[in-house]
Write a structure and sequence with these properties.
This protein is an all-beta fold. Helices cover 0% and strands 58% of the residues. The protein is built from no helices and 16 strands. Strand 5 and strand 6 form a beta hairpin.
């Protein structure tokens, strides 16, 4: 709603972890909202929840976390194995039904998969796989008909490009060519 700014910062006493803070946009005292936040956040369409990634060393996994802003409680929505690394912040769909994310399988079989998680149940569905590609950001179009990503497709370029992915049919178009 524009009333607050959210940011991550390291606590001086816990240098290995980032916390999520909220501060009024017109100034004021920051308030810690979540601890151990390993990605940018994405807000639900109604602004009542946010989602982020948390990497956990034991057991070695990635957790997709949802924070209820009113209660301050977070919950694990989904888990991925450590063989797939999240490479961008999750993105909540405009209709609130799904959360998109990008998971990377490192070399020798370098592959990024755009995945969809059901926002209520956490059920995962692989949307589209890209070999020899690292996608480093994802965002939904405002009308929900697709997503925009940026990343490197090593089969065609060594610099980041912008791609448009139609939803739900998964047709991909490269937008930039430089």
């Amino acid at each position: 709603d524009g009333n607050y700014l959210f940011y991550t910062a390291v606590r001086p006493e816990r240098q290995n972890y980032q916390a999520l803070f909220q501060v009024p946009s017109l100034g004021g005292t920051p308030r810690e909202r979540a601890f151990d936040v390993d990605s940018r956040v994405s807000f639900s369409p109604d602004g009542r929840q946010l989602v982020f990634w948390r990497r956990v060393p034991d057991p070695s996994e990635n957790r997709l976390m949802v924070l209820d802003l009113e209660s301050g409680k977070d919950r694990i929505l989904a888990r991925t194995t450590d063989q797939e690394h999240f490479v961008s912040a999750p993105a909540w769909s405009p209709d609130g039904k799904r959360i998109a994310g990008c998971l990377l399988r490192p070399a020798p079989n370098l592959e990024t998969t755009i995945v969809m998680f059901d926002a209520a149940t956490g059920r995962r569905r692989d949307f589209k796989k890209f070999s020899r590609t690292i996608i480093n950001s994802i965002a939904w179009l405002r009308n929900g008909t697709g997503m925009v990503t940026s990343g490197q497709d090593f089969s065609t370029a060594l610099v980041d490009q912008v791609f448009l992915h139609d939803y739900p049919d998964a047709r991909t178009t490269r937008v930039t060519n430089d």
